[in-house]
Structures are given as C-alpha cells and as structure tokens.
Amino acid sequence: MAPMKSGESPYLKHLFVCVNRRPAGEDCCAEKAGEAVKERLKSFVAANGLKGKVRISGSGCMDFCAKGGNVMVTPGRRWYSGVTPADVERIIALELAPLVSPKPVA
C-alpha cells in the first residue's frame, strides 16, 4: 500500500449537498429536494467548463436535518440551509459563476 500523502485540494471549490435519507416521517434533506439541488449544481458545472475545477458531491447527514436542504462550500466554510431548487440560481451566482471564464467576443 502506498504511503498517505497530503496536499492542496485539486478543486477551486467543493460543494457538498446533503442527500441523506431518514426513515419515513423524519426530517431529511432527501425529502427536501437534496438530489434536485445537487443535480442542478452538477449541470451548471458541466455546462460551463468547470469540471475538474469544481466538485459537487452528495453527502450523508450534516446534522442539520430540520434546517435542510443543506449545502456546504469549501474553501471558505460557507453554509447554506433551507435550500430549495429555487435557491440554486443564487448559490450559482455567488459561488460558481465568478469561476466561469468569459466567452471570447468574435
């Protein structure tokens, strides 16, 4: 087995979207559209050439189920709670759009 190594993250930003599912009747981000939020963020990354620069990952429980959906952004220690699919455009504008290279003018 190779020895463990440590270094900087290969990503400019890494967004963790809680998609945890709890038993029926319990608060959970899966029931608060966590998957839809994650997929919309992933679509933006793919459509805007950010693959390899930004990572969108589904996560397990973040322990704030009652405040879900939850999205954590690193670096920067930014946390979004109460996230719905309607909020994704604001997260994109704040976290991802500034990383998109301008399109050349022809």
Percent of residues in β-strands: 15-25%
State the fourth-level CATH superfamily.
Answer: Glutaredoxin
Instruction: Give me the CATH architecture, please.
Output: 3-Layer(aba) Sandwich
- Ends: how far apart? 52 Å
| Number of individual domains | 1
Order of helices and strands: EHEEEH
Determine the structural class based on helices, strands and strand pairing.
Answer: alpha+beta
Gyration radius over CA: 15 Å
Q: Which parts are unreliable, with pLDDT below 50 for 5 consecutive residues or more?
A: none
Main beta sheet: 4 strands, mixed
The name of the CATH topology is Glutaredoxin
| Strand arrangement in the largest pleated sheet | 2-1-3-4
The percentage helix is 10-25%
Overall spatial form: globular
The oligomeric status of these chains comes to single chain
How would you explain this protein's 3D organization?
There is one protein chain. With 106 residues, the chain is α+β, with helices and mostly antiparallel strands. The protein has one domain: 3-Layer(aba) Sandwich (Glutaredoxin), CATH 3.40.30.10. 22% of the residues lie in helices and 20% in strands. Strands 2-1-3-4 form a four-stranded mixed beta sheet, covered by helices on one side. The mean pLDDT is 92.
Give the key terms.
Glutaredoxin; 4 strands; alpha+beta; 4-stranded mixed sheet; 106 residues; globular
Provide a compact summary of the structure.
The protein is an alpha+beta fold.
Give the arrangement of secondary structure elements.
Layout: E1 13-18, H1 34-47, E2 54-59, E3 70-74, E4 78-81, H2 88-96
Parallel strand pairs: 1-2
Antiparallel strand pairs: 1-3, 3-4
